[in-house]
């Protein structure tokens, strides 16, 4: 049922052999009047003219090795052989990542505004290479001037509902880099598993990282597989991922969920819940009443201690504290929560949630970091410095921007990449319908905002909740090709957005997906 146009247009793309097909579309692309090609072979040097551009050279070589089976020599001095020159052009663009590129008989020149820009120039170069394995790689003469539209270009991954090995997390980060995106939001804790080692609280992973079964099929399921399921990342592995991402100019934002989505944490440390338990790491999907008690000071001490271990692992200025889908049932019945409300003159449980988030924000701010929270953190009053991630549509983002808060847009109906891509989806998904064209049509700056308020829209992000993604292949099936559409939404000038043109370029992108060994079109369970 999926991507019928792929087959239909294979034949179309054959006639576009010499055309370049870059996603996201560059700001300015010119082909010279006299067409020509520079040919990259194993003898073509990468010339590091600027200092500190080794990441770009390494990424290029790793890609060439993986796809074409050879690497290029890296030198610091230009000889007589034309090569791939990596350098800086000071462009003074307000958002890091601008670059110039020129391909001529003299070779390839990439000049980045900064190292990030040079790296993005390399990503563009990769898209000019042939889409079949070869030992000589012709690239068309052209000039490009390019820069990103938004500063936050994110992709999220939920590793709680299903756990993904380090090797796939790295591959996922490569996908982000190949799309000139720069944030990886790592959803590390939830009801169905706690996935990050915390040395002070070993039970979080000893007990909290494992569930005793998982429902079979779509919620509510046809039974339970009764299989122990889980896993977690050690702090050493987390550092490895953060370092891997940094070499690709990607910032990793950790999410530690509070006060809801806390079943796994409470299973490990039941005294942190309103009732004291017992609790279980959940085996089905949805929203649960097992939330952190807002009236117990030990909860705040615990979360601060957890964050004291988490924050040093992540150089990002942002820490995501969740804040979504926190039912108030337990708080309503809890004497400690009632006392907290009375002592602080809080009029309802929404204000209690706001108290919780603000208290945590104060601590996180004191460590020099900024919190991000899902749009529920607006309810009961926004924490003073919080960034809002608007997911239940755009309204939360609009409201937050009007209150002069920064916003990252992640509305379900455009960028929830767990939603089905086709109307009659063969595989099991959470449902709904967000085809690639819908994602492509997304405009992150709501028209309700004036120019000043619009500046608070940092960008947008695709969210990948993995209830129905048990394997890396299924994740790939869900994110592609919508990730490519999203990359253009976030990078390219709004006035350049053109679905028909994108759809044509996508045909070449499908071939790249194949080269990468990505499962973008085979349906899976
Ligand atoms: C969310 O999808 N619950 C943020
Ligand atoms: Zn309580």
Quick structural overview:
With 525 residues, this protein is α/β, with parallel strands linked by helices. The protein has 18 helices and 21 strands.
What labels would you give this structure?
Chitobiase, domain 2; 2 domains; alpha/beta; 525 residues; binds acetamide; seven-stranded mixed beta sheet; TIM Barrel; binds zinc ion; 17% strand; eight-stranded parallel barrel
Summarize the structure in words.
The structure is a single chain. The chain has helices at 4-14, 54-68, 115-126, 166-178, 203-206, 235-246, 263-268, 297-310, 329-333, 335-343, 349-366, 395-402, 412-415, 436-440, 451-454, 472-479, 482-491, 499-516, and strands at 28-30, 37-40, 46-48, 74-75, 83-88, 99-104, 107-112, 137-140, 142-146, 152-158, 183-187, 189-190, 193-194, 210-211, 229-230, 251-258, 318-322, 370-374, 387-390, 407-409, 457-462. The protein is α/β, with parallel strands linked by helices and 525 residues long. The chain has two domains: 13-146, 2-Layer Sandwich (Chitobiase, domain 2); 152-516, Alpha-Beta Barrel (TIM Barrel). The protein is globular and about 80 Å long. The two termini are 14 Å apart. Bound molecules: acetamide (ACM) and zinc ion. Residues 324-325, 374, 391 line the site of acetamide.
């Amino acid at each position: 049922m999926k991507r019928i146009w792929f087959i239909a247009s294979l034949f179309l793309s054959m006639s576009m052999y010499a055309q370049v097909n870059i996603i996201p579309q560059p700001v300015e692309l010119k082909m010279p009047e006299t067409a020509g090609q520079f040919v990259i072979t194993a003898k073509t040097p990468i010339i590091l003219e600027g200092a500190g551009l080794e990441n770009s050279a390494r990424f290029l070589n790793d890609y060439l090795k993986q796809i074409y089976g050879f690497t290029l020599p890296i030198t610091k001095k230009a000889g007589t052989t034309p090569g791939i020159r990596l350098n800086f052009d000071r462009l003074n663009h307000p958002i890091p990542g601008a670059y110039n590129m020129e391909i001529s008989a003299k070779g390839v020149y990439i000049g980045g505004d900064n190292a990030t820009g040079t790296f993005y120039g390399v990503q563009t170069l990769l898209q000019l290479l042939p889409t079949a394995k070869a030992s000589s790689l012709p690239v068309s003469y052209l000039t490009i001037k390019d820069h990103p539209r938004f500063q936050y270009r994110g992709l999220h991954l939920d590793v709680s509902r299903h756990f993904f090995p380090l090797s796939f997390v790295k591959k996922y980060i490569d996908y982000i880099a190949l799309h000139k995106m720069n944030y990886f939001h790592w959803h590390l804790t939830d009801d169905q598993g706690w996935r990050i080692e915390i040395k002070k609280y070993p039970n979080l992973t000893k007990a909290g990282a494992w569930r005793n079964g998982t429902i079979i099929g779509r919620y509510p399921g046809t039974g339970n597989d009764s299989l122990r399921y889980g896993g977690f990342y050690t702090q050493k592995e987390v550092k490895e991922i953060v370092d891997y991402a940094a070499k690709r100019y990607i910032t990793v934002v950790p999410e530690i969920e509070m006060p809801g989505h806390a079943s796994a944490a409470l299973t490990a440390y039941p005294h942190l819940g309103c009732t004291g338990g017992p609790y279980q790491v959940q085996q089905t999907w949805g929203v649960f009443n097992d939330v952190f008690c807002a009236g117990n000071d030990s909860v705040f001490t615990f979360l601060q201690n957890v964050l004291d271990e988490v924050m040093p692992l992540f150089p990002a200025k942002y820490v995501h504290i969740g804040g979504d889908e926190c039912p108030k049932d337990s708080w309503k019945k809890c004497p400690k929560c009632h006392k907290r409300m009375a002592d602080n003159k809080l009029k309802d449980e929404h204000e209690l949630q706001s108290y919780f988030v603000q208290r945590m924000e104060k601590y996180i701010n004191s460590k020099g970091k900024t919190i991000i929270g899902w749009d529920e953190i607006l309810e009961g009053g926004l924490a003073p410095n919080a960034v809002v991630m608007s997911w239940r549509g755009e309204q939360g983002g609009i409201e937050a921007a009007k209150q002069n808060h920064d916003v990252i847009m992640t509305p379900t109906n455009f960028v929830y990449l767990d939603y089905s891509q086709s109307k009659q989806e063969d595989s099991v998904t959470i449902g709904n319908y967000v085809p690639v064209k819908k994602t492509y049509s997304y405009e992150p700056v709501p028209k309700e905002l004036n120019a000043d308020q619009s500046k608070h829209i940092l960008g947008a992000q695709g969210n990948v909740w993995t209830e129905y993604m048990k394997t890396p292949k299924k994740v790939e099936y869900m994110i592609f090709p919508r990730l490519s559409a999203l990359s253009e939404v976030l990078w390219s000038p709004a006035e350049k957005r053109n679905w028909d043109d994108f759809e044509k370029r996508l045909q070449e992108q499908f071939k790249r997906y194949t080269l990468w060994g990505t499962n973008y079109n085979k349906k899976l369970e």
